[in-house]
């Protein structure tokens, strides 16, 4: 449910690998382009280029699933603000043992569980995959495959135990890219939220891609402040944090608090990733893509969520509050994206 950048990329590859997959999407032109020409997938290498003739449905056609075999696994891969209605739409078509996998940014497992029950929810985190649906029927990946260097997908149960169904989902995904079954879904989710919180809203507010942001001293420091605030809130909430991308969480928090050695180390890691050539200059976080396309962003579910959780436990998240308000103003057309918004103190 959701055949955009991540959902389309994963769904098409699963179909290419022989799994019985149908994509459902809300963008009519995208559905029709896939039906006419297949879903065109691109990557950083020629070997990743392929066209997949994956079955695709318009939202208006979902009721026809009632004439088919019930759904064993429903991957929800829509924007966070669409989670509830998408889950509710698909719930009635689940098989008795069927379940829902949240393949999304942000933390949506609780929203899904409120509709299908906690026992029918699994989380799947796509870490540093960076894919872009730049036009209907075309999805490109703008970072290399993880392979042995980086585990891209993390599949986990909400209760933290390794189960046969979590392993089954991981085995399905393993031929797409590196994957593991995690016993730390919530820590992994918050760690990914820290990373998204550092990058997505900054791209939306400035109009810049990831490499341009990291190479700008002021924007890089603001991103570090965002990351450090989110780390401290996650720690206070009791999460066992993983690395924030390649950044050690405690070092990131110390860097955001002005500790010189930690700041030097974190900045060096960020600049090394930018200058290595591993990340395409086309790479733009998903919220930056949404802003370019005039779409609603997930800012309330990302930086706004961090600020909300911080307020609940009495930990300030001033950078997240500021960024959330700024991106909302840009969405409303009151401002245009501009690096200057975040370069002032």
Please outline the helices and strands.
Blueprint: H1 5-16, E1 23-25, H2 28-37, E2 39-42, E3 50-52, E4 56-58, E5 71-76, H3 83-91, E6 94-102, H4 109-116, E7 121-126, E8 131-135, E9 138-141, E10 153-157, H5 164-173, E11 179-181, H6 185-206, H7 210-215, H8 217-236, H9 249-256, H10 260-275, H11 286-293, H12 303-313, H13 318-331, H14 340-343
Parallel strand pairs: 1-4, 2-9, 5-6, 6-7, 10-11
Antiparallel strand pairs: 2-3, 7-10, 8-9
What does this 3D model show about the protein?
This protein has 345 residues and is an alpha/beta fold. The chain folds into two domains: 5-183, 3-Layer(aba) Sandwich (Rossmann fold); 188-343, N-(1-d-carboxylethyl)-l-norvaline Dehydrogenase, domain 2 (Orthogonal Bundle), CATH 1.10.1040. It contains 14 helices and eleven strands. A five-stranded mixed β-sheet has the order 5-6-7-10-11, with helices on both faces. Strands 3-2-9-8 form a four-stranded mixed β-sheet. α4 links the parallel β6 and β7. The longest helix is centred in the middle third of the chain and has 22 residues, at 185-206. The radius of gyration is 19 Å and the shape is globular. It starts with a helix and ends with a helix.
């Amino acid at each position: 449910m959701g055949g955009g950048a991540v959902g389309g990329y994963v769904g098409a590859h699963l179909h290419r690998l022989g799994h019985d997959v149908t994509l459902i999407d809300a963008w009519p032109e995208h559905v029709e382009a896939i039906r006419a020409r297949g879903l065109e997938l691109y990557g950083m290498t020629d070997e990743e280029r392929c066209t997949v003739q994956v079955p695709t449905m318009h939202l208006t056609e979902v009721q026809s699933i009632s004439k088919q075999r019930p759904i064993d696994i429903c991957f929800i891969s829509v924007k966070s603000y669409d989670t509830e209605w998408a889950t509710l739409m698909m719930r009635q078509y689940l098989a008795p043992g069927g379940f829902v996998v949240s393949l999304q940014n942000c933390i949506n497992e609780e929203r899904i569980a409120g509709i299908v029950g906690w026992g029918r929810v699994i989380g799947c985190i796509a870490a540093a995959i960076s894919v872009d649906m730049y036009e209907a029927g075309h999805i490109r990946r703008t970072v290399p495959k993880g392979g042995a260097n980086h585990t891209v997908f993390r599949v986990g149960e909400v209760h933290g135990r390794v189960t046969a169904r979590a392993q089954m989902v991981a085995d399905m995904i393993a031929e797409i890219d590196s994957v593991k079954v995690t016993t730390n879904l919530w820590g992994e989710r918050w760690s990914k939220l820290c990373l998204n919180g550092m990058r997505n809203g900054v791209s939306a507010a400035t109009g810049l891609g990831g490499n341009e942001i990291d190479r700008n001293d002021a924007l890089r420091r603001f991103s570090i402040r965002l990351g450090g605030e989110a780390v401290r809130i996650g720690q206070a909430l009791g999460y066992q944090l993983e690395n924030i991308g390649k950044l050690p969480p405690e070092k990131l928090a110390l860097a955001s608090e002005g500790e010189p050695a930690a700041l030097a180390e974190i900045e060096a890691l960020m600049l090394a990733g930018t200058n290595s050539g591993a990340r395409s200059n086309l790479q733009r976080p998903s919220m930056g893509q949404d802003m370019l396309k005039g779409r609603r962003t997930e800012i309330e579910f990302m930086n706004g969520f961090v600020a909300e959780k911080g307020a609940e436990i009495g930990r300030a998240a001033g950078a997240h509050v500021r960024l959330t308000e700024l991106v909302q103003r840009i969405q409303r057309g009151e401002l245009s994206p501009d690096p200057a918004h975040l370069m002032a103190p």
